[in-house]
């Protein structure tokens, strides 16, 4: 588990402490739950590492892609 510092305004901090006390847990646990929920709702869209990894040095390659791929898979 990694450690981080979080700055909250006084009112939010008090509400967090009251919620934690009401649930009988640490405020840190509520923060971890909130972050986990946020991450589930906003997944990171990863692109393959191979995208942009190579250079063809042919500036018209993307314009000619359909012609170059014609007949493949037949």
In short:
With 74 residues, the protein is an all-alpha fold. The chain has helices spanning 10-23, 27-41, 65-69.
How would you describe this structure to a colleague?
This protein has a domain at 9-45. The protein is built from three helices and no strands. It has helices spanning 10-23, 27-41, 65-69. The protein is rod-shaped. The protein starts with 9 loop residues before the first helix and ends in a 5-residue tail after the last helix. The mean pLDDT is 89.
SSE layout and pairing:
Elements: H1 10-23, H2 27-41, H3 65-69
Give the tags:
mainly alpha
Low-confidence stretches: none
Mean pLDDT: 89
Cα separation of the termini: 52 Å
Shape: rod-shaped
Largest sheet: none
Q: What is the rounded Rg?
A: 25 Å
Sequence of secondary-structure elements: HHH
